[in-house]
Amino acid sequence: MESCNCIEPQWPADELLMKYQYISDFFIALAYFSIPLELIYFVKKSAVFPYRWVLVQFGAFIVLCGATHLINLWTFNMHSRTVAVVMTTAKVLTALVSCVTALMLVHIIPDLLSVKTRELFLKNKAAELDREMGLIRTQEETGRHVRMLTHEIRSTLDRHTILKTTLVELGRTLALEECALWMPTRTGLELQLAYTLRHQNPVGFTVPTQLPVINQVFSTNRAVKISPNSPVARLRPVASKYMPGEVVAVRVPLLHLSNFQIYDWPELSTKHYALMVLMLPSDSARKWHVHELELVEVVADQVAVALSHAAILEESMRARDLLMEQNVALDLARREAETAVRARNDFLAVMNHEMGTPMHAIIAVSSLLQETELTPEQRLMVETILKSSNLLATLINDVLDLSRLEDGSLQLDIGTFNLHALFKEVLNLIKPIASVKKLLITLSLAADLPEYAVGDEKRLMQTLLNVVGNAVKFSKDGSISLSAFVAKSESLRDPRVPDFFPVPSDNHFYLRVQVKDSGSGINPQDIPKLFTKFAQGQSLATKNSDGSGLGLAICKRFVNLMEGHIWIESEGLGKGSTAIFAVKLGIPERSNELKLSFVPKGPANHGQTNFLGLKVLVMDDNGVSRSVTKGLLLYLGCDVMTVSSGEECLRVITQEHQVVFMDICMPGVDGYEVAVRIHEKFSKRHERPLIVALTGNTDRVTKEHCLRVGLDGVVLKPVSVDKMRSVLSELLEHRVLFEA
């Protein structure tokens, strides 16, 4: 029995349990006391927690729990009553604080749950904000690509460059495997492969526009995903071990500019679209994103705008080229017309000078011959020469007037004149011719016809002489009546000319003149031909070949210049005719003063008929004209010296010369320059002779030029004895003479 010794434990079981409880309570107390320290540290560091008093209460609960376990250490051995009281008090306080804390947690938990909800809401908002920021960044990236592509696309206005640049930039930006552009053909029934990015397919391949996939794309302005096997998407190599990537297509509007007009927008035709096809790489799992589709749509719109600008530029370039061609043609036509006008004017000036010179010689010599003693037969022949010469001179002047009327260089010479005296002068000129044919000619002036008027006296008189002369020429017997009155508005209307609307006013009136004859009459169908130059009515031309056919043509142009209208009425052959014209004349402001200022002209034979001793210098490069003018002046008693050039005239002229007649159209130093040098040579007016131009042209330009260089007079060739006598008398009396 002694050999079987049992090993007894060092600590009894109850004591061992107590020992373990003792150690556990110690560490529990230590843990409880460390938690408040951590809570105190958290409360001090945190400024956002709203329940600090709850933490204080919770800390007190933990402290009491720790104190209870700490006090419990002394209860494992014999302990005094004081320890038991303290232990009891700690447990009561711990129970009280724990109950209060539990009750407070009932109120705090909903708030804590709401805080958790708000936290979850804020997390969701933050996630949504992150998504929006990502979308914004994507849009900014898309916008950057759009701006870059737009800049590249719009950097040129060449259509081919725009399209090629579009494919290259889209392929680089979107990392495309292939990008192609299908353009409509001329008929619009097919789409033709025009541009590709990788050049894997030959350009020129066509597909019909009636394919469902094409109609689907053309029906919307959005980018549409299409099958990789559709005809417009078969642009990859046939043999490929990868699945084909996604394909999208978008339409590109094209402008139709066939009816392009300025200030109007070009017509946008819905039948004219190009098709742009974009393919993702086959060796990737990429899908088309929304922002990429938007980028494709925006680029398609930008390409359409760029193509429209290019089309407008091309149209404007074509229009500019056409306009330049037209301008070149117009400029060439203008230069040719100006050359023709200058040639015609030069020809007319030469004709006027060269024909006027012999006419001057014929009329002057004939008038000198008429002053000598002649037999009746000789006098009749001389008078015939004079009449024929005057008729030829009138024809030359008519041709010149007509030429100036046609090129618009003829202008009216507006002035105040005696209207009644003009009619009486026309009557006095016509009466001798009418008396030879035993025609009775009468003049009737209305009582309300103003005595003075403002207008072109010379053109009005020329029109009257033409119209009345025609009446005398085509009448064998009977009478001719000339009447004039102030026309009323209703009497001026001619249904054959609806555009003629005369409106009288306080400053002007319309003079209506009627010349009625009992002559041979005119066929109504021949009346329109009468106002055509070099044309006459057939019935008149066969009966009377006198005249050039220019008179009425010139009259019509004169009347049009005076804002009037002329026409002829006749019931037929043998029934006479009536020529009617109306012209616009002004009303002078002070008619009473005009009556005093207009002194009636005396007879042709002036007071001074002999100019014995009057020293005259004649300058003319034409020997015949020089001799004829000298003969006229010698016949009138003048002391005449002749020169053939301007230099000789300036060399021989002295203060003794009283009058200088010069031809202003001279070779070398012309008459204008001679006049200027004479003024320079004789600075004092009383020492300088009177300078008179002998010319075949007395238009306004010639008169203004003569006045500018200081000429004292202009006389129209040809000149007869009576005309030279009148010229010298007027010149010596008034010291100035500008013949109309």
UniProtKB/TrEMBL annotation:
Keywords: ATP-binding, Copper, Disulfide bond, Endoplasmic reticulum, Ethylene signaling pathway, Kinase, Membrane, Metal-binding, Nucleotide-binding, Phosphoprotein, Receptor, Transferase, Transmembrane, Transmembrane helix, Two-component regulatory system
Transmembrane segments: 20-41, 53-72, 92-113
Response regulatory domain residues: 615-732
Crosslink site: Glycyl lysine isopeptide (Lys-Gly) (interchain with G-Cter in ubiquitin): K717
Alphabetized PROSITE patterns for the sequence: HIS_KIN, RESPONSE_REGULATORY
Protein function: May act early in the ethylene signal transduction pathway, possibly as an ethylene receptor, or as a regulator of the pathway.
Family listed: Belongs to the ethylene receptor family.
Protein name from the UniProt record: Ethylene receptor
